[in-house]
Amino acid sequence: MARRTKAAEARDTRTAARVLWSTADWARAVAELPRKHPLPEASVLVPNERTAHALRRELCRLGLADRLPGIRFVSPFTAARETLLAAGVTFTAGEEALRPLRVRRLLRRERPMRYFDSIQLRSRPGWDDAFARTITELEGAGLSSSELLRAAQAREADLAAVWTELDAEAGTSWTAARILREAAERLPAACPLHGPILIAVTGHETVAHAAFLRALPRHSLAVLAARPVREEHLERLERLFGRACTEALRDARPPIGGATDRDRLAAHLFEPPERSPRAPAGRSPDGSVDLELCAGIEDELEAAADWIAHEVLEHRTPLEELAVLLPNLDPLAGMLVDRIERLPWPGGPLPVCIQGGLPASATAAGARILGLLRALGDALPASRVAAVLPWLRLEGDDGHLSTGEAVELAFALGTVGGTPSNPRGALEWKARLAERAEERQRTVDSRLSTLDSPPEHREVRRRRERLLRNLRAVRASFAALVDLAEGILAGESLPEIHARLIEFVERHVRLPAAGDEAVPALLLGAVEAGCVSQVVAELRGTEALRFVESTLAGLRVRGGRFGEPAVYVGTIAGTATLPFRAVRVIGLAEGHFPASERVDPVLPADGRRGAAGPTDRTLSQLHAFDRLVRNTSARVVLSVPASDVNGTEREPSALLLDVASAIAPDDRGPGRADVSVPGLADIARLWFEPARARRRAWRLERPLGPTASHDAAAAATAKATSPGVPDGGAGLVVVPGAWAGAGELDLARLLERETRGNEGPMGGFVASASVLPAIPGLARERPLSPTAVRTLLQCPYRFLLSSLLGWQEPVSAPTGLDLDPLSFGSLFHRVAEMFAREHGTEFGARSRGPDEWKATAAALARPAFDELAREVPLAGPDVRRQQLERLLAAVAVFVDYDWNGGRPRRLFACEHAFGEPEPFELRLGDNTLYLHGRIDRIDVEDERTVVRDLKTGRVHLRAGREADPEPRLDVQLALYGLAAERLAGEWGTPARIETAYAYVERRPALERAFRGDWELLREASLRWLDVAVRLLVERSFPRTPAAADCDYCPFVAVCGEAAPGRRFAPGPPAAGAAADFHALRAEEAPGS
Question: Can you give the residue range of the structural domain that contains 888?
């Protein structure tokens, strides 16, 4: 650590330091710099150009613009660089970015370690960054590797050895701390600054920074004051800048301003209770300080946009006087800027200035490139591939895959891609692309051309055709992506990988047409600049890819300049010294601000003997917030999201308690004399609830965007339909002009439909035949399947959405840890069908024993499983083996069950179709229901036709509440039995029917059977089907009255509050088939 001379200490004692409470105070100090010449020269050290511009502007506001000529604003780092250049020192800045790379290379070498485990350092990720960060902090604290080595401790010795090698390898590539230290040693001889120098310090500077500042000649110190003032901070300030600064800050008191809440907050924030008198009892908040609670991040961004509109329209605040601040720019800055720019503004988007620039990864192009890099870095796992596929160009098509199509395709190629333990799994994609394209074509051709095989369901056929079409369209881009991954796995160099990456992005990635097209070029230039360093140019494979990703993370675009007429978006720390008229701070949730201290795994704080150590991170954040409040002249709003960007629920930051303590009225009554800090309940009462009401009133009065317009229209409708409101509460609803065009946006039409409630089309009652296509089941050319009839009798509204409107369940990615129920059920049915077709007659005759038949069935199951495994990704051989054993177990259970105790049974058919080519007609009163389907198994036993449907899912026995026939369970089985009974003469089977569901994924297999009481199921089903056909004829599709039916319904979000059990759930219909349906469902046993 640099030592201070006695002369310097004496000089600091004699020279009183000035205390600056605001940027305006700072500007006055600049104006008071001595001027001894007609053409004066002076220098002011500032942290950045934003602060320099703020000081110039403050001087103009104070009427001191004549003091600006001759004053140079310069950052300490720029002054240090100029000092070294004046001294003729050769160096290169930016070693901080290269240091982790050097550390990684050094740690890979075999080296003796006294404290650290060298194997762990090489094998565990993150140690390179940790070592580099610790060494940089120690360098900033004024230590060197030799001083660290003298500590004679094992941990310090290991760290010093790595540090020594780093310095030797870096040569003239220096960090900022090294530049400041080297420059300080060459002062005052090589000082590039002329005239008096004003230096404003905070006490949070590093030792190297402070040593450089003290070494500057002709300087005068000023202290940027902030609260809370803690003794350890005063001690650090004295070590860095002398006793005069400490004494000045210790004795200083913030200026007492006006009587607004903002003035009280500036005067009393973080002050102890004895120095912070409470506001008079009964005094209400005046709006100059607001605390708001938002439902989540989306609501918080919407509230920020509302606040900007309110400031501009109500308070006439210029854009450049507005700031929206966050604890950190990532990941919210991009979303915030996007929301602000969507506010209506003449000539285009509302202008926004982003501190340092918008992160490139927050743009559409940057986000896609980042997603591509992460997919490649993870070795193209199926989940990452599914995310990337919609961004790839299609061959001969300007379109793109939808998210659902991408998920469907990625998980239909039979591989999970690469994993951390098997990165070369990424290369399996190319082989699977070629194989699946050929297999898909053969499958589609054979399924379409084979006449003697059972017809395939239309949806399954469409899915296969869609997969083949998408596979062909994206194949070229997908193959190029795999080629890129292959080069990375082969260990290509950074220049090679990056050149191929940029070429791939330009040729195969769909980038936005405007606005972000410069991101690839910027990334190319940044990586090429980095390759000037040998340690970067030598990177290969995944390390090279990580460097590209980190470079992209550091890129900034569309920044703008502070002071332009634009809303400012930045961080709390980066904006503390900038004056604004109104500021809104968002994201003030627990753990986000102030953020917790970081624990150093390499050299904890208690091990840094003799070093000033890093600054107190929490205290520096509180100081930044304090300065921010005092530099805001009119209004401060603090916003808290109830959940963060990941959806995690968060409590409000403790900072809000400090703010409330400074401005809350003194409402302590009897029994509360000892309470000095308001609680969350007080904050909710005084600020959260009134702010929510004011915001809602503003949005309803001036709806400036689609969301606000929706809220206003909904509020007006609710008011118009409220009982007791004169004239129905009718009023003018102001909506965007674009809403008055197309019929689907016609509010009058929508409101008219809404007044009809659940009796109109929105409730499933479609009177007009022109609205819907031909109803399936009522026309010979559109027969219904038993599965669709089951859906109709469970929830007619779901039938409307799926079977009539063609809505589909959203595609979801399989886990890779097992076969989903649908895939496993289809696989088992395929094996059972093959076994029955090839060996059913012989098996029915019981010509061999059950063990032999189990082996025969297993021999059929294995290749069927292998065929499915080429389509469904399973994570590794262990999962494949477990799922194969699951299938073999189910097949063995089925053979045992079908063995029937050894009693012979004649197989009539398996997967037997009925209703094709001519539909099966079922007369139900005056109506006819047209049906088609396939029956899993039809056997003949003792002059009885046994109809069975094989199940691999949940078991429903005829016991307890489910003993009697129920439509949601038994209508499929009943239809199979009715078809077998009606067609017995045509098929040559007995007319006496028995039916059963066979649950074969249990040992032993279980049945839900109607063997001796088929007539009971028959009579019940005819009543059910009469209701079903009348629902179709009347075009009535009401929602189910059973809330349990919604548990796994993919369309439950469509029903919303009209779903059963919700606030607007419809009551039972008064008449017609819909009323009979409700009565039918009411007959079911409760909870069934």
Answer: 816-903
